Amino acid sequence: MNNQCPICSKNCLLSNLQCEKGQKYFQQDLTNKLIKCGHILTHKTGKKRSQENILEILLKHKEISQRELQEILDIEAGSMSEIIAKLEQREYIKRYKDERDKRRYIISLTKKGYEKITNKKTNDEDMFDMLSTEEQIQLNDMLNTLLKEWYIRHMKYQK
């Protein structure tokens, strides 16, 4: 990793920036990296999380109706259908009509879905396992400092 400022010809170290352009560049770079981290966290813990939730529920229930699954997750029918279609396309689940009630769909895990959900790391393990315990503590301390100050500066009118 290059620790020199790429902006000017002084070749300053990032730890000792000599010009205002370099300082602004470094702050913008930090902001951009935090935005990218936010995007990854949202993707990992948000949108895809519903798919993981469905696989976890199916692991416990073996099979369940689409309506029951929708009620457990408290999501709209259209969203449910979209998520189910994606999981079906990836061959993590199978969906078939209920023999007793042809209006109902039953959903169950496939072998591939079972392997996916039983072999996955938790979000927390997967997000931070590349950092040592000491680095995780340092990151936690830095994030606490940022959040505390940002809350004071930017959220003081929101309670």
TrEMBL record:
Chain ranges of the HTH marR-type domain: 1-148
PROSITE patterns (UniProt xref): HTH_MARR_1, HTH_MARR_2
InterPro entries in alphabetical order: HTH_MarR-typ (IPR000835), Tscrpt_reg_MarR-type_CS (IPR023187), WH-like_DNA-bd_sf (IPR036388), WH_DNA-bd_sf (IPR036390)
Record carries keyword Coiled coil: no
Annotated keywords: DNA-binding, Transcription, Transcription regulation
GO molecular function: DNA binding; DNA-binding transcription factor activity
Domain of life: Bacteria
Residue stretches spanning the membrane: none
Family annotation (PANTHER family): TRANSCRIPTIONAL REGULATOR, MARR, TRANSCRIPTIONAL REPRESSOR OF EMRAB OPERON
Name of this protein: DNA-binding MarR family transcriptional regulator
